[in-house]
Amino acid sequence: MPETARPQPGSAPDDTLTQGASLAYGLSRVALWTAAAHAAECGRDTPYVLDPWAADFLHAARFGGGPPGDGPLQRLLPDWAVVRTRYFDEHLVNASRSGCRQVVLLGAGLDTRAFRLHWPAGVHVFEVEAPAVLEFKDRVLDGARPTCGRRSTVGIEATGSWAEDLLAAGFDPRRPTAWLAEMPLYFLQPEAVASIVGTMTELSAPGSTFGAECVNAQAVSTAFVAPFLDALSTIGIAWHWQLADPEGWWAEQGWEAGVADLFTLPYVIQRLSPFLPLLTEDAATCAFLTTGTLKK
After folding, report:
1. CATH number of domain containing 144
2. CA-CA distance, 138 to 130, in Å (whole number)?
3. How many CA atoms lie within 13 A of 225 on its CB side?
4. Residue 10 has pLDDT above 70, yes or no
């Protein structure tokens, strides 16, 4: 899925994204920042996310660095990325155990869930992403065997007309599906997000679920978030899609949605506890991890 974070063809390299594979494959800086967080997590005694390919992605992309600036949000981001991944890992596995034997990763990027999660039998994972990104990922995966029943890649940008390509890859709109857009939607303009979600809704059978992260529109001007957005703007990244009422927005799209109360989850409390002095109410709700089911 295209996002403002992606380097554009012909753009000059900077100190965050080095020239080479990263530029050639159109990799998202944000995807690489997440891979860096996953790679560091693998070194913990009890990792919340175990992604053995994350460090290989960084090496193959010749990537080093992180988000610009050194504010509190930048310091929290690696742990937030791990918490977010863990939350959606559990959501997808639970959905698949509840009958969603199709899983669609929209804007899959460097996602390796098809290879690292313990799926129930018969799950078919579809990854929708730009062909060059999928080529890069498959080269690094080097023939690794998925842990799901079947994995299919759909080489097309999700902001385009991807429904026919997904169907051609074996997707069955009569079967319940677990959809995930872990984070890239808020780099897109609102009308592009509405189009993607509209296609998702049209292809969903009863019992389908979704997961997505979105930015809290009421937090972007706070002292915790605004300096980070200013720093991101220096490398051409903007958060275009912002919601003040995610439940209401998703209801208008045909979904019954809810926002995670993250600080009821033990692993969130444990991991983010060092940052509690920084987490004012605005800071703690600067992004929504939203999940939901198709309205009956």
Report:
1. 3.40.50.150
2. 12
3. 19
4. no
Give dist(CA 158, CA 170) in Å, integer. 17
Q: Tally the domains of the chain.
A: 1
Map tokens 């069955």 to a residue.
172
Tens of pLDDT, residue by residue over 219-275, are 888 888 899 999 999 988 888 999 999 999 999 999 999 999 888 889 988 888 888
| Residue 110, domain member (yes or no) | yes
Q: If DSSP codes are grouped into helix, strand and coil, which group holds residue 283?
A: helix
CA-based R_g, the chain, Å: 18
Cα–Cα distance measured from residue 60 to residue 136, given in angstroms and rounded to the nearest whole number: 9
For residues 170 and 100, give the distance between their C-alpha atoms in angstroms, rounded to a whole number.
Answer: 15
Give the DSSP per-residue string, 114-168: HHHS-PPTT-EEEEEE-HHHHHHHHHHHTTPPPSSSEEEEEES-TTS--HHHHHH
CA atoms within 13 A on the CB side of 54: 24
Q: What CA–CA distance (Å, rounded) separates 181 from 260?
A: 15
Mean pLDDT on 3-26:
39
Residue 260: which domain range? Answer: 68-294
Element (H, E) at 19: none
Two structure tokens written together for 255: 């979904």
Around 41, how many Cα atoms within 13 Å sit in the side-chain half-sphere? 25
